[in-house]
Amino acid sequence: MLHAxxxxxxxxxxxxxxxxxxxxxxxxxxxxxxxxxxxxxxCYIGKxxxxxxxxxxxxxxSVEVQWRSYQLDPTIPEHYDGTELxxxxxxxxxDPAQVAGMFxxxxxxxxxxxxxxxxxxxxxxxxxxxxxxxHLAAAHGKGDDVKEALLSAHFEHGxxxxxxxxxxxxxxxxxxxxxxxxxxxxxxxxxxxxxxxxAEARALGVSGVPFFVLDRKxxxxxxxPAEVFSQALEEAWKEANPLTMVNAGGTDAEAxxxxxxxx
Length: 263
What we know:
Elements: E1 4-5, E2 30-36, H1 41-55, E3 63-69, H2 84-91, H3 96-112, H4 128-139, H5 143-156, H6 164-173, H7 178-186, H8 191-204, E4 211-214, E5 218-221, H9 226-240, E6 256-257, E7 260-261
Parallel strand pairs: 1-5, 2-3
Antiparallel strand pairs: 2-4, 4-5, 6-7
Helix pairs in contact: 1-9, 4-5, 4-7, 6-7
């Protein structure tokens, strides 16, 4: 059970003294798992806002980020013959005017994060193999690079995330051999890992993405403002690394306070 749920979604140290070198515990790292879909526009926006907070976090070098798979619509064919607007209106029953207004709002939010969404050019396709590529990339230490490339290609450049040629191109650009990419997709090497991510999301109660889990204690739903991520990072870090007081002989030494100094 996660302690907190902090939204937009697509349904969101201790000083060391040379005199006492072992008096302070070594700071523990933090693990952040992020469930998201390559086809989710709020997931890219949420990624940018999270990165803003992480880059300002003083302990960011001790934070491990793991991308987890989630599919908003597993029933999409490998290639859908239609636009993003027709997909949402025809398959999801949404009013076209409402969809157009949603696109305008989301694009404005994306632009504020330095992203250039072009909904008219988006290619609607099943994202399952893109998630397999992400697991392969993670095994090569390239998970974040490939996640960024997939999101940008889909929302900013109109690439087809269901295309084998495109996935091979993204993989090789990240330093993964075309042979490894093709072998992983030909054999569904990471299919079980992708499905396990889906199952774990259901077990955690995730019903929309992006969804951020900090040390399996704090949950953040949606593309929250960077300030929310910053607060959560600080709280999770303090809980994992509480300040340890070191006193000589169990008594406090002389100090000054608001009412004066000890004599």
